[in-house]
C-alpha cells in the first residue's frame, strides 16, 4: 500500500510550537498564491513509522548479508562512522557561518584532503564532487582546462577502454569531449597497439580504471603512462577499484595525473540506496590550479576557504561537497590507519581470488588467472545448454538470501557476473555463496524453468520491466 | 586482525592453499609495490577515534535554532524525530541502487512516492529520484533544455542563487552553452524589459528563481507570457514556499528544479542536500537521472522498478542524458518521510509561520529605519541595508549566540553592508526581538 | 544459525584503547583463576551486525503493525521518548554521583512522581518498582506494613477476583498472603455477595483491576470500596488497565488506597521484548510512610534522596528504579498533557467499542454490551463445530500480518481472545483486523485443516512447545 | 486531533454510529466522571518538550569516562557503537513478550543465546532470560533456595552489596525467611569461622559475593567445603570479573546471580540494568523467570519458544515460582550483543585492564600512605582509608571533572573516611595520575 492510500483527510502527524507571531496577510499577488492543496499524505505519526518500517523490511542491504556487486565495493559500513556523522556539531552548521565558527569542520576536511592525497599519491585534492561520476566530470574538466590553458585547443577527444564504467564516456561527453572507445586485448587489458593508434594530438586524456572492471591489473601501466604523456595527453584514474591497490601502489606512483575516489566504495561510507556518495578528485602539481573552488587552506593557524583561483574550473556543486560523507570517510581512515589500509588491500584481493577459485569450477571465469579485487564469470555455456541466463541466476540467488553480483557488465563479456566480495566478507560467506551458486547451476540443468521463474521468496516475484518502461507510470495515480 | 576484517591467520592459510599460491604477494602479479607505508598514523580503536572527532565537532559552533537568521539556500526547519529514526534504518542506509528490484521494494516504493510528492508540490508531471543538489539540478536542467530544442543560449536571471549560477557556468562552458544573465529590476524581480529584448531564435530556455535568491517572488505568469512556445521555461524553486505559492506547473513551467534540503534534511555544512528535478512527461526521455516506475510482478502484484534506463550512462554510455549514477536517494527518502509526517497542513503551517516571522522582522527593521533593498513581494527572505560595517557586527553577533542575517557581500561583493535575512518557523517573536536589540 | 555457529576461533569484533598501564601479574590464589575460556562468540563486527539485523527482521513489533494484546496496551511508542531517554545526561550518570551533580535527573523524577499522583489521585508515589508485578508486590507489602503497624496481625489474606491478572495472586503470595479467589458474577464483574462472604477481619486487601480484564468497569466500585474499608481492609488498584479511565476518573477518586501503574502500558514506554518496564506505586496519605526508600524530596531548592523512613517497607530494588523508562514516560506526559491524556481515554474506549461491534458478528463477545478499553471474544462455538481453536486462529492471524490478541485469558472464558486496540490505532486498522478475522472464520468452516496448521508465512512454522518443555534444551549445545 | 491518535472528526462520527451511540459519553456507562481536568499543563509539541528535557539532562554532570573511579554495583566500561545501533532496532524495542513464538524468533533466539552466554560465564547449566537487577535476582535466588529445601534461614555475607541486602530483606521478611549476616574477616572475605559455626539444620543457603562489595575475591572453594550437601550455595557475581576468575559453577555453586549492567548497558542512573540468574538443571522447575528453549517447527526446522511456563504466574497464579512477568529482556539483548562483540578475548582484556588499572591505583595510593582497609585479593575495586573529611574532597573533585572513589560512609556509615575505588579499562594511567594529584 502506498502512503497515499493510507492517507485520510484531516489526519495529522506533525506538531509545531507557537512562535507567538501574529498571522500576516499574504502580500503576494493573488495569482501567485497557491489555490489547490497538494495531494500529500495526511497520516498520523504511527502511520509514518509503520509505512517506512515495512518498506525497510523489504530491502536487502549490506547489513543483511553478502552484496557482491562488482565495482561497487559493497563493504561493511561501520556504525561508528554513522554516529560521528550525526553529531550536532557537524549536521547543524550552515555553510555560510562565520569561518571562525566552523574551524572543526574545515580542519576535518583539510586533514581528509591530505590523507587522501597521501593514499593516492597526488599533490592536492578537492572534496567537492558529490559522487564518482561527478568526480569524473570534475577531473575531465580539469584536463580540459589544462590543455586550454596551454593554448592546446585541438585536444577534443577522450580515450576510454571498452571495459570502462558507463560513467566514463558519459562524463567525458559532458565535459565536451568526443569519446574514442578502444578495444581490450585478448588478455582483458588495454591493447597497446589500439592505444597507440588512438593516441594523437587531438587526444586530451585517457581514462583508465586500474584494476579494470575485469578485476585485472593493467600491467603495462608504466608503458601506458609514458605513451599517453608522450602524446601530450593526461592520464586519468577512475578510483572505483582503488580498494585492490591499498597498501601496494598509488595512482600517483603509476603516473596518473588526475584521480577520482569514491568515498562510498573504498572508504566504507554507505551507499544510501543510491547515494549520497562523495567523489573527491586529486591531481598532480601541474593541475592544482585548475581544481574547483573553493579550496580549503590553512594559514596562520586558521582554516580558510579560498575562492580566488582564476584558473579553476569553477564550482562543480554548491558549497563544499557532501560533508557528512566526508566525516564518515575521515572516521574510517582514522580507524583503519596505515596498517589497516594495507590489510584491506590484501584481504580484498585474497577474497576475490579465493572466491574465483571456488567459482571457476561452476561458472567459468572470463579471463582466468590471478585477479585483483573482483573477477568476471560467465554462464554463456549454461545459457546455450539450458536457456537459463545470468539474469535468471541472479534472481534465483535472491531466493537464497544473497544479493546478485553486477550483471551484464562489462559489455565485452556476455551472460556474465562481475563479482567483488570486498575484504569484510568471511571465508564462510564466500564458501556459502559458491555453494548456493553450484546449487543453482544444478537446478538450471535439472529444472531450468525453476530458475527462469525465480525469485519466489522475495516481497514481490519477478517484475515486468519491459512494460514498466514502455508504458511508464511515473507517479501514484490519485483517484478522481 | 581487525574487527572489520574477519580473516583469521588459519583461514588466510587455507584460502591461499585453495588458490594455489603460497603468499599474499603471489596474488599481485605485475603490480608494482611502490609504497611500504602510508605517511598516516596506524589505526585507532573506535573510542579513541570518537573522542578525537567529537572534539572536532565541538570546534564548530551550533546555534540555538531560534537564533538562526541565515538561509541563502540552506534552511533550518524543525525536523520531527521520526525523520531521523526512520531514515537511519540501516536497511535503507546500507542498500545500493535497486538493481535487483525484487529485494529493493523498500527503496523503490519510497522513491516512487517521493517522485509523486515532488510532482504534487511543483505541479509537474514527472520527477526523477534525485540529483546532487539544487545547483547541479539547475545545470542539468539547462543542458536538458539544450538537448530538447538544440539552441545554446540561456537567459538566466541574475537573481538566481550565485552558487547555482557558478555551477551552471561550469557545466555549460564545455558544451558551448551560453548563459546570458538578465539583470534584476528595482523590485528585485527579473527585468522583464531586458528579458523581452534578449529573447531571440537562439534562445533555448529562460531561468528564474521562485522565490529568487533575494527571497523575491517572481511573477511566473508574466514571464511565461513573454516566452515563445519553443523556449523552455525553467524555474528554480524552494519547496517549502510551494505550500503558499502557486505551483510553477500551473504557469506552464517546463522544468522545475531546486534544493530539497529544507524538507527534513539537516544543513550538514551544505551537503548532502538533494536536488529535485521535475518536468513534463513529454520531455521525460531527455531527462537526466534515475526514474522509478510502477509495474507488476508475474503474479500481477504491484511493484516498483527503475524505468527508462536507456537514457542512463550504464546503458547509453557516451550518449546518455547525463553521467549521473550515484545520486542522493537517501535524502529523497528523508524528504518523503518529512513530507509524510508534516502533510499538506504541516507544510503549509511551516510556510506560513516562516512568512509571518520574516515579515515581522522586516517590519520591525523598517520601523527602526533599516530599509529593504527590494520592495517586491517576498516569501521568507529579504535583503536590507544593515548599516556601516555590518560584517563586523555579524561576526560579533555569534558571540551573543546569534547567527545573524548573511552579509551578502561575502557572496556578492556589490551588496556592501546589505544583509540577507531569513526566518522560518523556528524563529520566535522573542528571538526576533532579541536580534533586534543589536540593530 | 546461532551466533555460536558463526563463531570462528581467533576472529575479533572489538578494539580497545591502550590505558598505558603495565600488566600486573594476578595476585589471586591459583585455584580462583579461570582456566577454561568461556565458549563465547568470536566474530567480526560485520558478523555481529548481520546476526542481530537478521534476528530483528524475524520479530513482529508495534512498529510493524497492529498488536492487539489485551491488557498489555500495546500503543505506539513515540520516538521522541527514545531520543530523550538516550541523552548522555541521563544514560551516563551514576546512581551514587554527588547529589548536586544529578539535580536534573532528580527533578525529572520528582515531577514525574507528582504528575502520576495527579493522574491517579494519590498523595505520594514511589518510582522504584521495575515492572507491573513488581509494583504489585510493593503495593501489597505496603498493605501488609500498614496492618502490622496498627498491630492488626491477623490479616493474612488477600482477595483477588478470578478475572485478575496472574500476577495479582502471585504477588500477594510473595508478600506472604493467602489468596482468596472470588468468582465473578454473571455480568463479568465482582459478585458483591461473594465479596461480602469473603470479607472478614483476616482480609488485608482486595486487589482489583478496574476496568477488569473483561474490559468491564466495576460499576459498584463505590460500594466495593465502602465494603472493603468497612471490613478494615485496603483497596488495591492494578493499573494495567488505567488507559481506559484517563480523563474521566482516578483510582484515588474511586476509593483505592494503593495503585500501581505500568509506564510501559498507559504511558507509552516500549515493551522491549518483555521489559524493562516500570511499575510506580502510589498511595493515599495514610500509607505514605510505608513507601519504599529512598524517597525523592525537594527541600530548600534542592532535590534530595531521603532514606530515613523507619516504617518504610524498605528497598524493593537497587537504586531508584528504571530511570530511563521514567524519562520516556515523562516525555510522553509532557507531550500529551492534560488535553492529550483526556483524548487518549476517549479514543481507547471508542476503538475498543468499535472493534467489538465489528467483531461481535464474527466471534461472539463473552460479556456483551459497552466495554471499556478491551473486550473478550470467544470462538467456543466454532471450536465445537470445526475443531479450530482460538490458538489456531491466533496462528492464522500471523499469516495475515497482524499479531494475535491475548489468548485463553481471563480463565473464566474459554477459547477466547482478549482484544485491546489502544487509541493509537486507526479505524482502517480495526476494519482490516475485523476483515481478516472474518476471513479466517470462513476458512475455519470451509477448510479447518488450513487454519489448524497455520502459520505458513512466518520465519518458522508452528513450533512444538510440548516437547520443548518436556525435553527442555536450555542453551546451545556446543560440539565436542 | 493529535499526531499520536489518528482519529479524524469524521471517523469518530462514523465509529459512534457503527457502535450505535451518539456520543463518546454514552460509552462510559456507570463510570463516574470525577475529573474535568488534570492539574497538568496541556500537551506540548515535540520540539518544545525536547528543549525542556535536554535542559534537564544538562543539569546532570557527565564525567569523562577516564575520570570516573566509582563502581559499587554500577560500572563504566567502553560500549562499542554497534551495541547501541543494534539494540535500538525498533523491531526489538517495540515487541513484547514472545507469546507468538512464530513471529518472535528474533527475541527468542537472542534470549536463548543470552542464556547460553550467561551459563558459559558462570559455569552453570541453565539461565533464565533476565531479572530486574542484581538485587532482586539475589532476593529471588534466596526464595528459590527456600522453595528447594524448605528451610528458612539464610547465612549471608555482610560484604554483599548493601542494596542487595536491603532488597533481600524486603523480599524475605513477609515470607518469614530469616537473613543472618556473617561478618567479614580482616582480609575482607567472609569470616569462615563464624559461617561454620552458624550452619545448622535450619540453614537453607549461604550467600557470598564474588567479588564481594569491597571488591574482595571470596574463596569459593573453601566456602563450599564447609557446606553440607543440602545447603544451597548462592554466589552473587560480577560478570566482567568472570573472564579472570574461575567460574562459580566449578566450585559447586547452586545459584549464581548478579547485575549484568557492566555488559554493555549504560549506567542509566542505576536503572534499567539487568539481573542475571543461573542455576543447575535439577533446580530449573523451582527457578523464577522466563526461560527460552530450543525446539522444532512442524517441518523440523529449528526454532525457539518459551518453555516451562507452568512455573510462571500467568499459568500457576498464586503457586508460581515468582510473580515476575515483565523482565529486562531488552537489556539481555544488550548483554548478548556486547558479549558477541567483545568475544572471550575482548572480555578478558577488559577484565585484565580493569584489574591492572585498579591495582596500579592501589599501589600508587599505598605509596602515598593511603592504606587499603582489607588486604584480601581484589578484582577491580578496593577500599582505602582516604583521610580526614574525604566526603568534602569527593564533592570538590567533581569540580575538577573527577568522579572520585565512593565515600563508603554514604552507604555504610561505619566506614567513615573510607573510599571504595573502582577502575576499569576506561581509566588511563594519565587519568589515574591526575586523580592522585588530589591525594
UniProtKB/TrEMBL annotation, chains A, C:
One GO term (biological process): glycine decarboxylation via glycine cleavage system
Entry keyword annotation includes Transmembrane: no
Superkingdom field: Bacteria
GO cellular component: cytosol; glycine cleavage complex
EC number: 1.4.4.2
Keywords: Oxidoreductase, Pyridoxal phosphate
Modified residues (N6-(pyridoxal phosphate)lysine): 265
Quaternary structure note: The glycine cleavage system is composed of four proteins: P, T, L and H. In this organism, the P 'protein' is a heterodimer of two subunits.
Name of the molecule in the record: Probable glycine dehydrogenase (decarboxylating) subunit 2
Organism this protein belongs to: Thermosipho atlanticus DSM 15807
Gene from which the chain derives: gcvPB
Automatic annotation (TrEMBL), chains B, D:
Coiled-coil spans in chain: none
CDD domains: GDC-P
Domain Glycine cleavage system P-protein N-terminal: 2-439
Keywords of this entry: Oxidoreductase
SUPFAM superfamilies: PLP-dependent transferases
Catalytic activity: N(6)-[(R)-lipoyl]-L-lysyl-[glycine-cleavage complex H protein] + glycine + H(+) = N(6)-[(R)-S(8)-aminomethyldihydrolipoyl]-L-lysyl-[glycine-cleavage complex H protein] + CO2
Known EC number: 1.4.4.2
Biological processes, Gene Ontology terms: glycine decarboxylation via glycine cleavage system; nucleoside metabolic process
UniProt KW Oxidoreductase keyword: yes
Annotated GO MF terms: glycine dehydrogenase (decarboxylating) activity
Stored NCBIfam families: PRK00451.1 (NF001696)
PANTHER family referenced in this protein's UniProt entry, alphabetically: GLYCINE CLEAVAGE SYSTEM P-PROTEIN, GLYCINE DEHYDROGENASE (DECARBOXYLATING)
Function recorded in the entry: The glycine cleavage system catalyzes the degradation of glycine. The P protein binds the alpha-amino group of glycine through its pyridoxal phosphate cofactor; CO(2) is released and the remaining methylamine moiety is then transferred to the lipoamide cofactor of the H protein.
Subunit organization: The glycine cleavage system is composed of four proteins: P, T, L and H. In this organism, the P 'protein' is a heterodimer of two subunits.
Family to which the UniProt record says this protein belongs: Belongs to the GcvP family. N-terminal subunit subfamily.
Annotated protein name in UniProt: Probable glycine dehydrogenase (decarboxylating) subunit 1
